[in-house]
Amino acid sequence: QVQLVESGGGLVQPGDSLRLSCAASGRTFSGYAMGWYRQAPGKERELVAAIISGGTTNYADSVKGRFTISQDNAKNTMYLQMNSLKPEDTAVYYCAAARSRFGILGGRADYWGQGTQVTVSS
Q: What's the rounded Cα separation, in Å, for the pair 116 and 122?
């Protein structure tokens, strides 16, 4: 059974940092396009960051310069380092995996995690 399990969310203050992890099991995701999405209450799910086979990365404009996506294929784990967090970053964050870049960039991933809550508040 293929699973993506996120961890690392929590309640932090503006300006703080968090690192989210996405551990994959059931298969290797080497060669897959991977990404992080988020969904805030009352808003549509949006792509935050993606990493495509070959190491190419994409970021939403709202997180460029603050968030960094990375992956460790040996551990079958993907990360999202989030710095200088803002209240508007508050959302449930989901990791996703797709067989193609179009799937990840278009929100049509083949696998999704269950989500982890990130709350940024003073």
A: 20
